[in-house]
Amino acid sequence: MSILVTGGAGYIGSHMVLALLEQRQEVVVLDNLSNGSAVSIARVENLAGRDVVFIEGDVRDRTLLDRVFREYPISDVLHFAGLKAVGESIEQPIRYYDNNVGGAVTLCLAMESAGVRRLIFSSSATVYGEQDSVPYHEGLPTGVPTNPYGRSKLMVEEMLRDLATADTRWSIALLRYFNPVGAHASGCIGEDPRGVPNNLVPFISQVAVGRLEALSVFGNDYPTADGTGVRDYIHVMDLVEGHLAAMQAIANRPGVSVWNLGTGRGYSVLDMIQAFERAAGCSIPFRVAPRRAGDLAQVWADASKAQRELGWRARRDLDAMVADAWRWQVNNPGGYAA
Ligand code: NAD
Ligand code: UD1
Q1: What is this structure's pTM?
Q2: What ligand is nearest to the CA atom of residue 97?
Q3: Is 103 a member of any domain?
Q4: Which of 11, 96, 136, 149 is catalytic?
């Protein structure tokens, strides 16, 4: 049997494909390369010493999907394909709903008609919105995401719940990622954002490597220990191991299951800067800037449900996250394109 990985040429997807190959799984990747790179697939194949089937195409292309399900014996789908830039989603909301919601609709229709009903969906902690207290656990009602990207994730979650209620043959995992960072320890694959990074760790990496001048710290007057925002950063390899555990679990678990993928502890922006300074052996220039619209003071996961039900927990610490992010950046200062 084969695993279909949509968005497998992207940041998280490429690490996932590597982990699947290392588990001796057959992998089919579908990616339109709108934010991914074929180079990442070649490097993954090189690291694993095995090949994947790579199909350049769009998850909204029903004809293509039908062909993929006809040609390959797909048992499970890991659905990473989507757009993820929050600011862009505010400027181009329909593009985001088309890609993220439309993509999931087309994928489910094609899966249904092929009789494939095991799906892992890349959701986000953003579906919790702002809650009264941290940590965030899966029993909390979902909140009000502050942007179209977040709403598209919540819409897909709700659609998948309806699907699994209507047809109990489906087994679906909604995996709510906290803040994935870092890279494979080889330094050969990693996060390669186009343009100026929106997220903290790629931004700091590019400052450390001299591509950007200084980091703007978005607010130092939050009600947190040092005044800067606190997040639950999780190593991308821990995250993909969480997917492997979830895949195994839903094989015998019909319906919808929701798991947080986080470490259960938060670090501030200043903690991240200091960790990077330790890893890179240089100082990271920064200035304090106003708060970024839509940011929350502190978000971290209650990661106990995944530990209890999947036997999974994040194992890599902050120093490993930033050391691996840094190794990738130093080895590939211009990303995959260079
Ligand atoms: P990414 O942009 O690196 O990877 C997404 C991949 O999907 C890219 O390779 C892109 O080319 C591809 N893609 C986009 N639209 C497509 C389409 N219509 N058809 C086919 N391929 C398409 O992003 P990532 O960080 O690897 O994120 C993967 C998933 O996880 C996304 O769904 C994202 O929303 C979700 N997520 C990411 C984070 C994060 O911080 N990185 C946090 C929470 C959730
Ligand atoms: C953001 C998105 C979230 C998305 C996630 C992954 C927002 C409001 N949230 O999460 O929906 O799922 O990315 O794509 O955009 N920071 C700085 N300076 C920077 C960048 C970030 O100080 O240049 C701070 C932020 O204020 C925050 C922390 O660093 O406190 C982490 O930011 P980021 O990496 O963008 O992640 P989130 O905001 O948690």
Answers
A1: 0.98
A2: 1
A3: yes
A4: 149
Strand-strand pairing, 171-177 and 233-235: unpaired
Q: Sign of torsion, CA 319 327 237 206? A: positive
Task: Tell me which residue range forms the domain holding 150.
Answer: 2-183+233-263+302-310
> Does any ligand 2 atom lie closer than 6 A to the CB of residue 113?
no
Angle at 147 between CA 132 and CA 89, to 5 degrees: 155
Closest ligand (CA of 107): 1
How many domains is the chain built from? Answer: 1
Residue 109 maps to a domain: yes
30: in domain: yes
Sequence letter at residue 336: Y
Quick one: pLDDT at residue 294?
93
Q: Please enumerate in sequence order all residues whose Cβ is within 8 A of that of 85, keeping only pairs 6 or more positions apart, or say none.
A: 149, 198
Active site residue 149: yes
Q: What digits encode the pLDDT tens for the residues 243-276?
A: 999 999 999 999 999 999 999 999 999 999 999 9
Which protein residues are within 6 Å of ligand 1, measured from CB?
6-7, 9-13, 30-36, 58-60, 80-84, 99, 103, 122, 124, 177, 179-180
CATH number where 104 lies: 3.40.50.720
